[in-house]
Structures are given as C-alpha cells and as structure tokens.
Amino acid sequence: MATFKRIAVFGSSGSIGCNALEVIRRYPARFKAQALCVNSQIDILRAQMGALRPALVCVTDRSAARRLRSAPGKKAGSVKVLSGYEGMEALCADRSIDHVLIAISGAAALSVLLKAIEHGKEVSLANKEALVMAGPIIMAAARRHKVIIRPIDSEQSAIWQCLNGAQDTQVKAVYLTASGGPFRGWTKKQLSHITLAQALKHPRWKMGRKITVDSATLMNKGLEILEAIALFNLRPEQVRVVVHPQSVIHSMVEFVDGAIMAQLSVPDMRIPIQYALSYPERLRGVCPPVDFVDLRALSFETPDSERFPSLLLAYEAARRGGTLPCVLNAANERAVEAFLHEEIGFSAIAELVARVMRKHRTVDQPSLNDILEADSWARAAAEKLLSGTVKPSRR
To answer: For residue 261, what are the domain limits?
Structure first.
C-alpha cells in the first residue's frame, strides 16, 4: 500500500521549492505540504499558504516573520509561524513531518540537513553546498541514523538512478554532464567582458541568481564533483565532466565490466523531485518523453578548464580534502555575491576563490566545528581581498 507523506519544503519560494509544491499538489492522495519555509518572501508564502493549507510555516528573517504574523487579512488562520534558524530546526524535529525537502541555497542548509538526519526524517536534497562543506560528516550521520539522502539535482539523481543499489566497488567512473552554460565556446577575451545580464541567461534551466552564475563559471559542476564524491563514496579520479549541450543525458555511470548506464529525460526539475519524493516507487509524470527522432543527435565535448578554471579548483579541493572544499565553497559564495553586486568582473570570481584557497591551512580530518571555522575564515579572507589592495581587478 502506498505511503502518505507529510512534507516540509525548505525554500518553498524558490524555483525548486515551487516545482516541488507542484508535484505535491498533483498527488494529494500521496503527499501533503505540511510545512513551508522561506527566508523573507512572505508574499509568495502567503499565496502558498492559501493554496496548500500547511500546518506550519517558518520565515527565517525575523522582521518578515513579524510582518506575516501581524499583517491584516493574512491567510495564516491556524497556521503556526516559526522564525529564525531555530524555527527551521524545530520543523526538522516536528513529529508531524515525515519527509524534509531542502531547497535552500548556500551554507545555511548544513544545520538543517544534519538536524533532519538526526531526527530520522526522509531527506530530499537540492543543496550542493552542505555536502561540499561537510560531506564525510553528513554521510556518516546518515549511515548512523539509517537515512537515505535522495538527491534532487538532476545530475546526482541520474547517478543515483543508474546505480540502482549497486555497490561502489562495481563502479569504474561516473560522468557528470554539463550544458556548457551561456558562454560555451567563448574566448578568454570575450569572457573578460561578460555582463551580469549575460551571466544570468542560462540556455537550459531557470534557476536562482547564484546557481545561474555558478553554472556560467562551471563552478556549479565543480561543486557537483565534490557532491558526487560524498554521496556515492567515489574517488576524485572517478568523477568526470563532459559538456553535453542538449541536456538530455543527465549523467552516466560506467561499471567495471564496461557497461554504461545513462539516465535520459527532458530537462525538467519536476522529474528528479518527484522520484525523490516517491522513491522507491515511480509515479506517472507530467513531462513529455524524449522524442529521439526530433532530437536526432547527442553531442559531447571536453570542458575547457583553462577558460573555466573553477573545475580545476574543485578537483584540487577534492584531492586535498579536509577543510579545503568548505573554503572553496565559502569563497565562491562571497565572490558570486560580489559579482551580482557588480563589484568584480566575471573572470575575477575564480581568481578570488583561488587566492583564498592558496591562503588556507587545511585541516585534514575536520570536526564540524573545524568546518564552521573554515567557512567563517574563508568568507573573511575573501572580504579582505575584495576590500584590500589586492582586490581582483574589475573587467
């Protein structure tokens, strides 16, 4: 008999969160949006509350939470409104919630993910940064509490589906596919004059601003390298990146016997979201199948790491391990923020990350406290580079 799941959606106002709510709404006999969480987007949250009638909501921005509670004519009704990070952690601990879907971006997801695992919740994860920061700690906690982390990123979901329970000793390599972003084929000279508006136009996916910039620099793929290593117990040399402009093959797994399994679908995030929520079952989807005749061809290219050095930085962090992946992530978050505020040029993003990584003294087997300290250190180091005499030149 099918299991009914009460779901908490963290980041319900974002692209992934909205797609998740669409899947939940499509199957009311299977899923209920029991709790919703946003940072400060209370107008979107109010509309979601009216449509989905959650029992709990959390607004991490305390002033926005106060506005939600006090606004005349709000559609809160009997909904309990929580706030702050302790509000998010309270949702993870709430006994009325069976499944936690984490679609908040950045390092903020780490504490939420660990709290959900600690309470033995089913977990669907659309956040890369937490696993990049503290992959070994997270996966050890998941094993201890017998929690399966169900990836929502299309590439990691594809690997998960292709593995289908296979042992890691049976895996020779995995291939992460990349669309190439909006600047595939551009020269280094052209890359040095990229505008913010150009960087925010992804050719295939509609995503948030930060992840869209990461896709343009290929740092998003670099983070996925580190994410795959953590999720599937891989060595850095087992994870390979190929540019696949059609974005139909979402990733591939090569086994030791030479067989290669690939997961194909139209590029629509509702597919991996729905599979994560319904696993191990498959429910009828809303997306059309791949039309192979219309598609005609699938092409692949080697990524140019000279023009897009973020991949090399990610492999360096993966090989050295310890606190360095956390430093890479934190420095990149600050660099992308600076680019989004037009404080630095596009090419300076990877330059800033590399400078921070070179300054860091890696802790090889870090505790969670070491991870958090490295995160804070990297942000401060990036800030100093941005504001000091060695600030990367704007291009």
So the answer is: 153-268+300-305
